[in-house]
Write a structure and sequence with these properties.
Elements (H helix, E strand, L loop, with lengths): L9 H18 L3 E8 L2 E9 L12 E2 L3 H15 L9 H4 L10 H6 L24 H5 L16 H15 L3 H10 L19 E3 L6 E3 L9 H4 L2 E2 L1 H13 L7 H8 L7 H6 L1 E3 L4 E5 L2 E10 L2 E8 L4 E7 L7 H15 L15 H4 L3 E5 L2 E7 L5 E5 L7 E5 L5 E3 L8 E6 L5 E6 L2 E4 L23
Antiparallel strand pairs: 1-2, 1-11, 3-6, 4-5, 7-8, 8-9, 9-10, 10-11, 12-13, 12-19, 13-14, 14-15, 15-16, 16-17, 17-18, 18-19
Helix pairs in contact: 1-12, 2-6, 2-7, 9-10
């Protein structure tokens, strides 16, 4: 990917470089590279290194660890979109014979299956995958630690199972399917299961001295779908664009939106921290901004991809050290710097190309009891219904083609908004999941459940 640094202001570029330099220095990383994406293109690339004359660019591979899980999730959702499976299916239906067959595919994607976080000893990240040739070796004798669906518990074996599911339904190795169905269509030519030069070496940095120790780069075998891959800032920048926009050759925009939606119950500490998990994507609320993406780590490497859809800005950060810099914070900061220094310029306002008169007559103010709402027509025949106070239950609705609309978000997601007409064709009220919205508070001419006091509104003397 060619990068243009002229598209950001000099002050923004300097702020990005400063943040990266501080992270590399304070985190004591042998090297750190980063990229920023805006409006679908890479607009900045930066690198810092402890080796003079060997500054890595956007084509140098680093191991990306658990960002691999997001790629695996994409393959599973492709199968769902093709009708080969349902996310509510139990694993046993498609991959029989495991000791984890009761888990649903959705639970595995969202880390809510109750499976253990790791495989049995020895430490799988620092030992050959050949030690775990079968799924039973990955799951161990006690695969479940928690009731299914009740809590988020990150599980590497869970994504091993999803990789095996892909292999079973595609009839080909997980790595080959991923290359054919995701990497090649998205032109991720520098993303691979094994390192390809130029690539960084993995290092451990001593916690109490500025000295290094080489880390092994094991082939993870069965555990590969949980963390095997190597990639570059250039490739992951392209992948970030895909996660924001979708690509019909891989997944639709609607399906990647589904990936970005919370799918796991948050524990008390997670609620306080503003973090949860979607379908193969981590979600966090930070500095008033909703961020999605994924972090990764394996001995010798750290990785992070962070995306703000609302700001249309993404960041990728890679480092070749086992611990030290907190790359999720660095990624969020890079997004924030661009979003705040150079806010997204909105598209020009344009009138609707056409309007249905029966929908237009519904526009304006409505009341649910005494709560005031405004109904506005939106693009594509949709409507929005929002509290005029700015607080409360609001939502966008898509047109169903029969004069009704279905909620897309929040409390009213999936609920049907329907105008109820009198015998003369005039609108009596709106019905939204049995709630009645009237033109006046408790309009006595409408069908308000429980009726309206015949004496009407009154004061107290």
């Amino acid at each position: 990917m060619t990068t243009s640094q002229e598209e950001l202001l000099p002050s923004t570029r300097r702020a990005l470089l400063h943040r990266l330099a501080v992270a590399q220095s304070e985190g004591r990383a042998p090297s750190m590279v980063a990229a920023v994406v805006r409006e679908g293109r890479t607009v900045w690339h930066g690198a810092r290194t402890s080796v003079d004359g060997q500054v890595p660019d956007e084509n140098v591979q680093y191991r990306i660890g658990s960002i691999t899980k997001t790629f695996t999730a994409v393959l599973v959702l492709r199968l769902r979109d093709e009708g080969r499976l349902d996310l509510g299916d139990r694993l046993e239906k498609h991959l029989p014979g495991t000791s984890a067959g009761e888990a649903t595919i959705a639970e595995l994607l969202a880390h809510t299956s109750g499976l253990a976080a790791e495989s049995p000893a020895p430490w799988w990240e620092r030992s050959p995958g050949s030690l775990r040739p079968e799924l039973s070796d990955v799951l161990g004798e006690r695969p479940f630690l928690h009731p299914a669906g009740r809590r988020f518990h990150y599980s590497n074996p869970g994504y091993t199972l999803l990789g095996a599911l892909v292999e079973r339904l595609r009839g080909a190795p997980w790595e080959d399917v991923l290359r054919r169905e995701v990497l090649e269509p998205l032109a991720l030519d520098r993303t691979s299961a094994r390192p390809s030069a130029p690539h960084a070496d993995g290092w451990a940095v001593h916690p109490w001295a500025d000295v290094l120790l080489p880390e092994p780069a094991e082939d993870l075998g069965r555990m590969a779908p949980a963390g095997q891959f190597w990639s570059t800032t250039g490739d992951l920048a392209r992948f970030a664009v895909f996660l924001a926009q979708g690509d019909e050759r891989v997944l639709s925009a609607q399906t990647v939106r589904e990936m970005r939606a919370p799918a796991a119950p948050a524990e008390a500490a997670d609620v306080a921290d503003g973090v949860t998990y979607g379908l193969g994507l981590q979600i966090q609320h930070r500095d008033g901004r909703l961020l999605v993406g994924h972090s990764g780590s394996l001995p010798g490497f750290l990785a992070n991809l962070t995306l703000s859809v609302a700001d249309d800005v993404a960041a990728v950060v890679l480092a070749n050290c086992t611990s030290g810099p907190l790359l999720s914070t660095v990624g969020a900061d890079l997004v924030r710097i661009v979003a705040e220094a150079e806010p997204r310029i909105p598209e020009p306002w344009r009138p609707l190309p056409g309007v249905d008169p029966s929908a237009l007559e519904l526009a304006g103010q409505w009341y649910w009891g005494t709560y005031a709402f405004g109904l506005r027509l939106t693009g594509g025949g949709g409507v929005s219904l929002d509290p005029l106070s700015g607080k409360g239950r609001g939502a966008r609705f898509r047109a169903n083609g029969d004069g009704t609309w279905t909620g897309l978000e929040g409390y009213y997601a999936g609920e049907v908004l329907r105008p109820v007409r009198r015998a003369d064709g005039s609108v009596s009220h709106l019905d939204l999941g049995s709630f009645v919205f009237t033109r006046q508070p408790y309009d006595e001419t409408a069908e308000v459940p429980g009726g309206v006091d015949p004496e009407g509104w009154r004061g107290i003397g």
